[in-house]
C-alpha cells in the first residue's frame, strides 16, 4: 500500500477529505489520480449525513456552520436549498439529514504537491488561515489552506 484517502471529521467549513502518500511515491501523479478516482466513486451516489454530524460550531463561536453554509465559504455556491434537508427515518433517527454537496481539503500551503492535487481535482481555494494549526513535526503553528471540492453537476466531466 502506498497511501490512503478518506473522508474525515466535520469542520466549520464541512466534511473533510484527507489523503496521505508515501514520500517515495511523491511527484508521480498517484495522489491526483487516486483522489480523482475517489471523488468519482464518492459522488456517484447521493450522500446524506445526520444534521448533528454536519453542523459544527463556527470558529468565532457566533453561529453554527455546516457543509451547506455558503457564508462561511464565500465561493459563489448556490444559495441554500431547503430541498437538501430531509427527514431522517427509523428508530433513533429523529431530526433531519442534510445532503453533502462538497468536501473540504485542508492543506499546508507550503506543500505544493498537495496544493496541486486539490487544484487538479477541481478544488477551489477558499482561504488560507494563518498560524492556525499545530503539526506534530513542526515547532511553530502552521498556516492552513482550505480547498472546497464541490459535487459535480450532471453535465460536468468527472475528474
TrEMBL record:
Domain N-acetyltransferase: 2-123
InterPro entries reported for this sequence: Acyl_CoA_acyltransferase, GNAT_dom, N-acetyltransferase
SUPFAM superfamilies: Acyl-CoA N-acyltransferases (Nat)
MF terms in GO: acyltransferase activity, transferring groups other than amino-acyl groups
Name assigned to this protein: N-acetyltransferase domain-containing protein
Species in which this protein is naturally found: Colletotrichum liriopes
